[in-house]
Specification:
By secondary structure, the protein is α+β, with helices and mostly antiparallel strands. The chain contains 26 helices and 32 strands. Helices cover 45% and strands 18% of the residues. Strands 1, 21, 24, 25, 26 and 27 form a 6-stranded mixed sheet that branches. Strands 15, 16, 17, 18, 19 and 20 form a 6-stranded mixed sheet that branches. Strands 28, 29, 30, 31 and 32 form a 5-stranded antiparallel sheet that branches.
């Protein structure tokens, strides 16, 4: 009977364990199918193998170590009984009961520790495949790779061992205490025989780890946040470093004394050693001595003492954020623009972004979502050569939003089999407006209709930013493709995306993994069916490469007729010596709020590189990880770990490379750091005499921090225009502009940062000052008031600062939106230059108001040039008369002059087309 009882118990135990592990095992199976389908099985098996190995080694080692300590304690006290079982009938079962409880506790501890150790697979593999940075820290003269790849593993091992010894001591002490090994009748501090030896060795191990802790803490001084700057300062190097060495040495001596005392009759010497260590060393050497150095040596001569350490902080922070090679130039900020200068920079003028992405997104949704189940998530900015013109455009993918279907239509068949994908996109130039104040659409409607030489051959979007549910394709029912006339068009997926379901066993596995019985019992499946999951772009790429950080804004591009998502990926670290984390900079939370950029803040990132760009096909989900920065040591290490994950830079086609842009998140981080770290002189940095900040601007009546923006422009001294990301800077507590930064996105110059600094002895208007001047302009404020009184919402878009020919042009679009409508219309364009602030219906009219009519080339006057010149002169005179009538409130005269001006402009336009 006893044998049968044990057998039944074993079967029940195995069943319980099997059921508890089945979900995990089935999930691992489906994950392996997915990784194999996307072509990255090597990544999956490398990670899984090391995760299992770490888990097993930790679990077995903890079980053995803790169980051996428990058994030793039980053995050394075998002649004693547990006190709470004394004089009880259960006394004969006490040891068995104690062993069961101890085993349960040990298993729980081992399981928890093993599970917590699994994420260290990355730390271990980076240690085994480390790459030198070829740069050494200034204090210990170690290569940066030691801090990035090796030190984290040493700390991980230290924590692993400390936890092991503490639990070993806990398990042993529980036995000794419960069996009465410590009693008031015994001599104080006295332990008998092998019990003392056992505990002394465990305590010696813990104290030895304390010695290692203080030895490793020496390197952590390079991340000290307590000094004048981030990193080791004078007190750290000359006081705390010495203190850590002394404490580490004394702790090691005490650990050795504990080992030797295990064979002595009394442990008095180690106890005194602990007192010396923690009272004298910690208080005097680690507390009073650094305080004394700081108060009486450093603070009276702080700049002189801290200057070399400030220089270290500046140098290493600039290196960590790739700010060490910013090209700095002076920018005159003169008021020397004229019409001829604008004509020579026509490509820049033609690409001034009049459409702010926020009102444009509302407009897209109103005029191009077509059906309630489609949704434009956001608006992307890119550049294309269309009909021979290199120009900036804005575009958005029309994704499927299943949650917007009526409740009665949300069936399992519709969600999983029918409504599977979005369709097409909308694209418009940044600077063109229809007569109704709406964007001029280059690509629109369903199926996509293109007005330019850019065709979309595969418009279906199975993978995007809204695709957060799993679907099935290749089933016996056709998928909804797009609305067509009074009915719908249907299709059958023929791409290579998704995981095939060739058998009932595959469906059974997914039914169990996803918790859906319909997957198993539905009759719609056949051997050609596929399941698509991890369809959300950022989730998809993160699943393959969780060790990379991804930009908050994947953007859509039309490449060779296909819709492709481009995602910027970053290698990051929080272990770069002397480099200040971006999270510890002023206003970081405010600047990086929203989106994935916030992920950089809690992790104390202090090193970043945009080393990888990921291309994801919107139709089949194919992912390609392209190497952008071949020199990044972190990426080199990942390439050693996963040799087939990344494709070299040479594998990038020109069509794909043409749409690479400098990432917005990286630029914001670099700009945030550069607010302080443009100061390379330690004395200037110490005095904080040249701190900058992001400018402020007004949007919908609220003041907010200006964000970087993309423009096509010709930089000073350049021969042709490029696609550039720019951001102005203003001094702290001042509103005038002090500099502007640009990041290139074109060709061989991709990734280069430039800084243009304005003369400090003259006033260059900043965005907030221009906004104030706009508010103070009577005609503009009156017009805003009239619109508001008529029931329209006035929306002032982004204020753009456009550098041209050493001067600055400020442009702000103005939109109108009815109070009960979500359809903003572009109604006016404000242009500010020098002392002029004007608002007209178009950018060209505003520029004409400030800079006059069109300039003609010098030469022999012809009948046409004389006619154009006369018309331009008449236009200016008519405009000035209209403005005078407007100032006097004579609306009838103003309307008549405006009509005359329109007729003159039409004649001018006809003349220019001859």
């Amino acid at each position: 009977m006893n044998f049968i009882y044990r057998g039944i118990t074993l079967i029940i135990l195995i069943t319980i364990i099997g059921l508890s592990l089945s979900k995990t095992l089935v999930h691992i199976l489906t994950e392996s199918w997915w990784f194999n389908a996307v072509g990255f099985a090597e990544v999956f098996w490398t990670r899984l193998t090391w995760q299992i190995l770490i888990w097993v080694v930790t679990f077995v080692f903890y079980i053995l170590f803790l169980w051996v300590n428990h058994r030793l304690a039980m053995h050394y006290t075998r002649h004693r009984s547990f006190q709470f079982f004394e004089d009880s009938e259960l006394a004969i079962h006490a040891n068995k009961f104690a062993n069961i409880l101890a085993l349960v506790l040990i298993i729980v501890v081992a399981l928890g520790t093993a599970t917590a150790s699994v994420p260290t697979w990355e730390t271990i593999l980076k240690y085994l495949h480390s790459t030198n940075f070829d740069s050494r820290d200034p204090i210990f003269q170690r290569d940066i790779s030691f801090y990035v790849f090796q030190l984290p593993l040493y700390w991980g091992i230290w924590n692993w061992l400390l936890f092991l010894f503490v639990w070993g001591l806990t398990v042993s002490l529980l036995v000794y205490i419960l069996k009465g090994s410590f009693t008031p009748r015994q001599s104080r501090h006295t332990l008998n025989g092998k019990v003392k030896t056992h505990l002394s060795l465990l305590v010696a191990g813990i104290i030895g780890l304390i010695a290692v802790d203080f030895w490793l803490k020496r390197y952590n001084l390079l991340y000290s946040p307590s000094g004048v700057v981030f990193g080791a300062g004078y007190t750290d190097v000359h006081a705390r470093l010495f203190a850590y060495r002394i404490i580490s040495t004394l702790a090691l001596v005490v650990a050795v004394l504990f080992v030797f005392s295990s064979w002595r009759k009394a442990p008095a010497l180690p106890v005194q050693g602990i007192a010396v260590l923690f009272v004298i060393t910690l208080v005097l050497i680690n507390g009073i001595y650094p305080w004394f150095v700081q108060q009486f040596i450093v603070e009276p001569n702080e700049l002189a003492k801290e200057k070399p350490y400030i220089a270290n902080n500046i140098k290493f922070t600039q290196n960590a954020y790739h700010l060490n090679d910013v090209q700095r130039q002076n920018y005159a900020g003169e008021s020397q623009l004229n019409r001829q200068a604008l004509q020579s920079n026509q490509a820049t003028i033609n690409n001034i972004r009049l459409w702010d992405y926020r009102p444009l997104l509302s407009t897209y949704r109103q005029i191009q979502e077509i059906r309630l189940y489609y949704r434009f998530r956001d608006v992307d900015v890119d550049r294309y050569t269309l009909n021979g013109n290199y120009q900036q455009v804005m575009l958005s993918g029309r994704e499927l939003a299943y949650s917007q279907l009526p409740e009665e239509a949300r069936t399992w068949v519709n969600q999983r089999l029918k409504f599977t994908h979005g369709y097409g996109l909308v694209m418009s130039p940044v600077n063109q407006v229809t007569a109704n104040g709406l964007p001029e659409l280059y690509i629109k409607d369903i199926p996509p209709v293109s007005k330019v030489n850019l065709q979309v051959s595969q418009p279906a979007i199975y993978y995007g930013e809204e695709t957060d549910n799993y679907i099935f394709t290749g089933t016996k029912t056709k998928e909804f493709d797009y609305p067509f006339g009074d009915g719908n068009a249907f299709t059958t997926y023929n791409g290579k995306g998704g995981v095939r379901l060739p058998s009932i066993w595959h469906r059974l596995a997914y039914a169990y993994d996803l918790g859906s019985l319909q997957i198993l019992i539905s009759n719609y499946f056949n051997d050609q069916s596929r399941i698509h999951y991890y369809r959300k772009i950022q989730e998809r790429v993160d699943r393959v490469a969780p060790f990379l950080q991804f930009d908050s804004d994947p953007y859509l591009a039309v490449i060779n007729g296909k819709l492709q998502w481009i995602v910027d990926a970053y290698t990051v670290s929080d272990r770069y010596p002397y480099s200040k984390p971006v999270a510890q900079t002023k206003n970081a939370t405010e600047i990086f709020k929203g989106g994935n950029t916030q992920k950089f803040l809690p992790s104390n990132i202090n090193y970043i590189r945009n080393s990888v760009k990921v291309l994801v096909d919107a139709y089949d989900g194919t992912m390609r990880f392209f190497v952008i920065d071949e020199t990044d040591p972190l990426l080199s290490t990942y390439r050693k770990i996963f040799p087939h994950l990344f494709e070299p830079n040479a594998a990038i086609s020109p069509e794909v490379k043409a749409h690479f842009r400098y990432p917005l998140d990286l630029f914001k981080i670099q700009a945030q750091m550069y607010l302080s770290y443009h100061m390379s002189d330690p004395e200037v940095f110490y005095n904080r005499e040249d701190l900058w900040r992001f400018p402020m601007q007004v949007y919908e009546g609220n003041e907010q921090i200006m964000q970087p923006y993309y423009v096509i422009m010709r930089l000073p001294g350049e021969a042709k225009e490029g696609f550039i990301l720019i951001l102005p800077f203003t001094p702290v507590n001042k509103d005038n502009m002090i500099a502007w930064m640009a990041a290139r996105s074109n060709g061989k110059d991709y990734g280069k940062l430039l800084l243009y600094e304005f003369p400090k002895q003259k006033l260059v208007f900043g965005p907030r000052q221009i906004e104030a001047r706009i508010d103070q302009e009577p005609l503009i404020s009156q017009q805003f008031t009239l619109w508001s009184q008529a029931g329209s919402k006035v929306i002032r878009g982004d204020l753009l600062v456009i550098p041209i020919e050493g001067s600055l042009l400020y442009v702000e679009p103005v939109y109108l939106r009815a109070e009960q409508s979500e359809l903003p219309q572009l109604k006016r364009v404000i242009v500010a230059y020098d002392q002029d602030v004007v608002m007209e219906e178009t950018l060209e009219k505003s520029l004409m108001t400030i800079f006059g009519g069109l300039q003609v080339e010098k030469g022999v006057p012809t009948q046409m040039t004389r006619e154009v010149s006369n018309l331009a002169k008449n236009a200016m005179e008519t405009y000035q008369k209209a403005q005078e009538a407007l100032r006097q409130g004579n609306w009838a005269e103003y309307g008549r002059y405006q009509q005359n001006l329109e007729e003159i402009l039409q004649k001018l336009n006809q003349g220019s087309q001859r």
